[in-house]
Amino acid sequence: MPPNPSTSTRYAMLPTTDLQHAVDSIDSSDANAEKGAVDEETQSFWHRQMYRIVTAFSLLVVFAIALGMGVGLRGSSADATTTTTTTASSTATATAATATATETLVATSLESWRLDTASEYSIDMNWDSAAAPQTRYYNLTVSELEGAPDGFLRNMTVINGKFPGPLIEANEGDTLVITVINNGSTPTTMHWHGLFQNGTNYMDGVSYITQCVIPVGESFVYNFTLNDQYGTYWYHSHYKTQYSDGVVGPLIIHSSEEDDLVKDMYDYDQIVLIGDWYHAVAETYMADYLASGNENVEPVPDNGLINGASRFLCDKTPDDTCYDDEARNAVFHVEVDKTYRFRVINVGSFAEIDWSIDGHNLTLIEGDGTITVPYDYHKVRVGVAQRYSMLVHTNVSTDDGLFWMRAELNQYCFATTNSVLNSSVRGVVVYSTSLYAYTVGTLSKDLAPVTEAWDDVAANVLCLGLNDTIIEPMVVQAAPAASKFYRLDSSFQIKDYAIDLGYINNTNYKPLSSATLYEAYNMLSPDAYANVTDSNSSTLLSTSGVLPTGTFGGNKYQYVVNIPDYAVVDVLINNLDDGAHPFHLHGYKFWVMGWGSGNFKYDTYSDLNATNPMRRDTVVVRAYGWTIIRFIADNPGIWPFHCHITWHLEAGLLMQFEILPSAIAEFDPPEAWAQLCAASSS
Question: What CATH class has 484-681?
């Protein structure tokens, strides 16, 4: 049996010199084949021959070791990145299983800035989801460093000195206390994507909306309880384009209810972060993107990553600093004839991604924290910020036990091309029966499976998300009849200085100098802070619908819909743009009532499916199309609704819902929250 993926340090067998030469010979042949230097038939032949030679030789080595040459098992624990009050580990128990008890193993080396996702993102199957609610503490330090996730060296912003960020793990009902320390060179905030934050809207982490920024050299403590939800989520910076530079990580909420629904379906549980990747700091693209005359031509990625790694061919940019030795694919070690739950999260900035494993069927069981009736795919298209859990049964055979895991960027969503782009990003799935199970660890630059991609397409060549109408939640919830209806026209418009900006109902969003919630709270609770001067709350308490321009700090670039009382709200998103938009609603999980191309036909409104539509927090609205979502306005706060493409959000494609302002007046935010805004205005 190969080393278990749940170990805190990956291990690889220490072969003899001759065995290493044999393995290097295979790896070199495979690398050339990947570049097209050897045709597939010839490569496959020699691959099989060398595999047999090395297998025979390795058996002799193991036999010799069994006669007394073995020296035991060595390893070191991974650096701790979080602190919790519980004895439940945030990673699985280290077990480092081996083929024989006497094999000699050495720890696989990783760069100091690279997180060992093979262990850190492997979820402990013995996690106690039925434990009594408790408080779990995490520390997240934001800083900057140079790294080369795909071999190309660039400046990055990371968490706890690692990329990607650490796993945050808790139970439904637990309280998270997360201290974010800003050791970077720019302000920051942290958003907990998909979490309801019911009663703690001020902990949602959206810069200039639910909080003021955390200044350089300062910290802020996020404190919130995880009520009424479970599943796969993630966290990321919500300050300008910062998350695109590496400030991302997974967040998993366990529950006994989820275990009862699906846990007996799988044997292992693994997180897979996928996303596009750029070779420059994201903010540096903004000047060209928002330049006069540029008609919403977004920056095209240079590559993509799987769990923070992939291969970039350095000879494409010979004048740049690129390290071929650090250009390595993520490796996923699997046992034979087991079922794996892969929690796939698109943490990218722009691209839709088709995720698949060659030769393996995918069974979808979760989307955005909603457990679904199992549905089979070959490829699953994941929009930016969306999450899907797929079950994969490891019962497919090849000569070498290797398979490509693919994350294919949908180039049809791009308005232009990038000559260096690697759109077919890959990882390697290594079966426990493969010799390579003992010779590779977390990453590999030379393994080249000979498997072929599925020849079907997740949706089609258009920019489309997964079809929500065929995804059925396992826990049935009928959507109640709507009592309010709002239409939001999403568009890009060229106005002053020939600059193309994002608009919702003809309003381009620009942030306040403080935060929308801070201003609203001051108006509604005038005695909360001594520096409050505006105590006029009548507008917020009485207006139903769009608030007057300039309600918050006189800023005319805020489109805010006020819902003062409990309501069931339908929102028609009408996309007037030639590109698709993954729209995310903070604080809520909504029903996807329907979608289509062209204009919505109002005479079909009564035909929308309300029986048990898909519930999620991020939905892809197709180009020149529409989507209707429905949510129950019962979670008080200021909640952004925006496109999650980094460039579109920075271009102003955002509006806000103010829900139950009378309840906002009863909020009790910590004084440190208000002090952030005081610091911003000083």
Answer: mainly beta
Q: 348-374, pLDDT tens digit by residue? A: 999 999 999 999 999 999 999 999 999
Quote the pLDDT of residue 616: 98
| Cis peptide bond upstream of 215, omega within 30 | no
651, 290 Cβ separation under 8 angstroms: yes
Cα distances (angstroms) measured from residue 297 to each of 23, 294, 331, 643: 46, 6, 34, 16
- Element holding 393 (H helix, E strand): strand 387-393
Measured between alpha carbons, how far is 80 from 115 in angstroms, rounded to an integer? 11
Where do we find the tokens 């700091």? 281
Backbone Cα Rg of the chain? 26
Give the burial class of 431: count Cβ atoms within 10 A of its Cβ; 0-12 exposed, 13-18 middle, 19 or more buried.
buried
Contact predicate 602/615, CB 8 Å:
no
Query: pLDDT tens for residues 42-84?
Result: 344 444 444 444 444 443 443 343 333 332 222 233 333 334 4
Hey, what amino acid is at 9? T
pTM of the model: 0.86
How does 54-85 read in b/e, with b if 16+ C-beta sit within 10 Å?
beebbeebbeebeeeeeeeeebeebeebbebe
Domain ranges of the chain: 11-69, 484-681
pLDDT at 542 (0 to 100): 85
pLDDT digit string, tens, across residues 402-437: 999 999 999 989 999 999 999 999 999 999 999 999
